Each structure stands twice: as C-alpha cells, then as structure tokens.
Amino acid sequence: MNGSKEITNRIYNYLKEKGIIALDLSKPFEERKPEELIVNSMNAHPNKAVHAEVSQLLYRELALWN
C-alpha cells in the first residue's frame, strides 16, 4: 500500500477539493501485506475479499445520507 499511497492521496485530495465525496481507503488497508490484497502475483487488482470490504465501507458511508 505504501507504494501507491502518494498517488492515492493526491487523487483523494483532488476529489475532496472539487466537492466530490470519496472514501480514503488507505487507512483500512495500510497495515496489510500487499499479497493479502491482490488477486495474485500476476494480477495486482484488488481481490474478492477487498471488494467485499470496500462494498461494506461504501454501504456505511451511503447509509449516512439517509
């Protein structure tokens, strides 16, 4: 996660400055090993467990809108 933290922070801050609601996902995942977050060593996309966790974070954020 540290390898991508600089760019993800820049994107998050840009969206926030524009008034766009965004989740900062660096905190929930910062203590995890990269191999726990990705599909496999040949595919660095988030795995199913990460997608499930992010969906729960989004659900909680959207619930605040009601």
What does this structure look like?
- There is one protein chain.
- With 66 residues, the chain is mainly α.
- It has one domain.
- The chain is built from four helices and two strands; from the N terminus they run H-H-H-E-E-H.
- The chain has a two-stranded antiparallel ribbon with strand order 1-2.
- Strand 1 and strand 2 (43-46) form a beta hairpin.
- The radius of gyration is 13 Å and the shape is globular.
Write the layout of secondary structure elements.
Blueprint lengths: L1 H16 L8 H4 L4 H4 E3 L2 E4 L1 H16 L3
Antiparallel strand pairs: 1-2
Key structural traits:
66 residues, 4 helices
Number of domains: 1
Report the mean per-residue pLDDT as an integer: 91
Q: Can you tell me the residue ranges where pLDDT is under 50 for at least 5 consecutive residues?
A: none
Biggest beta sheet attributes:
2 strands, antiparallel
> How would you write the strand order of the largest sheet?
1-2
Q: What is the H-and-E element order?
A: HHHEEH
Helical content band: 55-70%
Q: Please provide the count of β strands.
A: 2
**Rg value:** 13 Å
The secondary structure category is mainly alpha
